[in-house]
Specification:
The protein is 51% helix and 0% strand. The chain is built from six helices and no strands.
């Protein structure tokens, strides 16, 4: 299948790799043309998935590859909102740094 093929929930392989915290998989999928800002059926991007589960390495990689830090999901939450709500302080720090342009 395609690197951007969607599952029943609208997620791509990049969403899954970000969700499971596999930074090597995230890199490989992005190298093969994975869409860094693709949204699933809930409006979440791979950065939302990584922020939710607290994979700081995935958050860094996605941000370095152009992930939109201000993108909102269908509930109006940004990746930062999820990092704060689910107590992922390292992700919160990386996202705040990206929002400040650093």
């Amino acid at each position: 299948g395609s690197v951007n093929e969607k599952d029943n929930g609208g997620g791509t392989p990049l969403h899954a790799a970000s969700f499971w915290g596999c930074v090597e998989c995230v890199r490989e999928l992005l190298d093969r043309g994975g869409s860094v800002n693709e949204k699933d059926n809930g409006g979440g991007t791979p950065l939302h998935a990584a922020s939710f589960w607290g994979c700081v390495e995935c958050v860094r990689e996605l941000l370095e590859r152009g992930a939109s830090v201000n993108e909102k999901d269908n509930d109006g939450d940004t990746p930062l909102d999820l990092a704060i709500h689910y107590s992922n302080p390292q992700c919160e720090k990386e996202l705040r740094r990206a929002m400040a342009g650093r």
